[in-house]
Design goal:
Low-confidence stretches: none
CATH topology: Rossmann fold
Shape: globular
Number of helices: 6
Helix content: 25-40%
Strand content: 15-25%
Largest sheet: 5 strands, mixed, barrel
Number of strands: 9
CATH superfamily: Nucleoside phosphorylase domain
Distance between the termini: 33 Å
Number of domains: 1
Length: 276
């Protein structure tokens, strides 16, 4: 981890040469949820390829740009796409953008993802506010010699998702009259979808399953950044009702749900602006 500080500083220098504002929040747009970027009052857009040490985004539907501007009156830096372990990147590469956003000054991090529904009460198109997670990726971005400039050797993970932000999200859903669940996210490496036997196993551990988010949350906890993560159930992992899943179907369903996630994120940001 000792080389990370240099990489972070080099990335920050390039971003700040394009955009000099200090963001209050960072947003990571997951699969099918990139339309939120169109609602940001965009001031600067930087391709990931222009930022030192950022990998290339190869996942389906991920544009690979850093959008800097304002959303709900709050300065934000937004990843239009993210990196995954299944793309062949290390856990430290996947999470470098979170560290860079932290160095830019964010106080809160909003994560979104598409997931498979494990809880039999969930339906395709439901939104889940993630309460906790289980790491079955068998990777951890904190492995290696710790750099105390970035965070403590043994960060606490008893509450990786911010309780207050989650409560605000649930209240916004009630006010807008749409269903939002609380749930536990199980992170797996992918890229294949789960077998029936794996679905039976995973249902004992959590409510939704996906291939991202967990490494980013670990690094945010390490850096002292408050996190809210929203998951869109795009397919159901029901071992006794087998149905094939495709990436295109996942993106289509996630895109339909995007207005709900946008309402939550903008609502929480508005409260941030009010209390700042």
């Amino acid at each position: 981890m000792l080389e990370l500080k240099i990489q972070i500083d080099e990335a920050v220098k390039v971003i700040c040469s394009h955009w000099s504002r200090r963001p209050m929040a960072g947003i990571v747009l997951g699969t099918g949820l990139g339309d939120l970027a169109n609602h940001i009052r965009q001031e600067v857009a930087i391709d990931f390829t222009e930022i030192p040490h950022f990998p290339r985004a190869t996942a389906l539907g991920h544009k690979g740009r850093l959008i800097c501007g304002e959303l709900a009156g709050v300065p934000v830096v937004t990843m239009e796409g993210r990196f995954h372990l299944y793309e062949g990147y290390s856990a430290q590469q996947v999470t470098l953008p979170v560290r860079v956003m932290g160095a830019l000054g964010i106080q809160k991090l909003f994560l979104s993802n598409a997931s498979g529904g494990l809880n039999p009460q969930f339906r395709s198109g439901d939104v889940v506010v993630i309460d906790d997670h289980v790491n079955l990726m068998w990777r951890n971005p904190l492995v290696g010699i710790n750099d105390e400039q970035l965070g403590p050797r043994f960060p606490d993970m008893c509450q990786p998702f911010d309780r207050k932000m989650n409560e605000i999200a649930l209240e916004i859903a009630r006010q807008n009259d749409f269903v939002v669940h609380r749930g536990v996210y199980v992170g797996v490496i992918g890229p294949n979808y789960e077998t029936r036997a794996e679905c039976r196993f995973l249902r004992r551990l959590g409510d939704v399953v996906g291939m991202s988010t967990v490494p980013e949350v670990i690094v945010a906890a390490h850096a002292g950044i408050r996190v809210m993560a929203l998951s869109t159930v795009t397919n159901l992992c029901l071992p006794d009702q087998v149905k094939s899943t495709s990436g295109e179907e996942v993106i289509a369903i996630a895109a339909e749900v995007e207005p709900k996630l946008r309402a939550i994120v903008t609502g929480v940001l508005q409260q941030m602006a009010t209390t700042a």
